[in-house]
Amino acid sequence: MTIQQSKDLILEIERLSQINQLILDSVAEGIYGIDLNAKVIFWNKSAEILTGYKIEDFENDNLHDLIHHTNPAGEHVPVVECPVYHALNNGTSLYVTDDIFWRKDGTSFPVEFTIKPMVEKGTQVGTVITFRDITEKLQTEELILQWEKLSMVGQMAAGVAHEIRNPLTSLKGFLQLMKSNKVFNDQYYDIMS
């Protein structure tokens, strides 16, 4: 290989690397990768926006201790119980629908995430985690649930109103009969009572 071919190859690798980073930074979901030692090897722009952390923040700190240390119930999650590290150690895929991640400012947000092993030439070299903030999804589900409850209350109220109207309609009919035919009033009164 000539020097020019080597330079061209290096330029092509750099171009492809830039394209890959542009793709990662263009998706709405947070995406990050960790190697077999659980060191963050890539962290896209959405992950940065959602959490407030930059990839440099993980150089001296463990990712788990920063973004995934506590579960939705407020309990500390040891690394050995973390689904990300469990999937990393077992080389498995996992989909988690109800968890929380922590931002750099100390606030948390609900997430769902997918964990997939990164495999190179048949050997696992790490794990990729794709996550998204599900705050709006949960708020929408709560609104739908409240709407369904209100709808149920409305249906029950309509049923109660119907049950009240039925006897009143009968009473109204008997009163009209009593008014129109005074001869049978005692019989109508006995039927109504």
TrEMBL record:
Q: Name one GO biological process term.
A: regulation of DNA-templated transcription
Q: Which reaction does it catalyse?
A: ATP + protein L-histidine = ADP + protein N-phospho-L-histidine
> Sorted alphabetically, which Gene3D superfamilies does this protein's record hold?
1.10.287.130, PAS domain (3.30.450.20)
Question: Under which EC number(s) is this enzyme classified?
Answer: 2.7.13.3
Recite the UniProt keywords alphabetically. Answer: ATP-binding, Kinase, Nucleotide-binding, Phosphoprotein, Transferase, Two-component regulatory system
Ranges for the PAC domain?
95-146
| Chain ranges of the PAS domain | 23-68
Q: Which SUPFAM superfamilies match?
A: Homodimeric domain of signal transducing histidine kinase (SSF47384), PYP-like sensor domain (PAS domain) (SSF55785)
For this entry, the protein name equals: histidine kinase
